[in-house]
Amino acid sequence: MPLQVSAELPTIFVRKESFERTGLTRSDIDLRFNLTDAEFRIEGSLIAIGPLPSDETVGPLVEYLETKGISYYDDFFELSGNWPEWLSLYVMRA
Question: The pTM is what?
Answer without folding.
Answer: 0.88
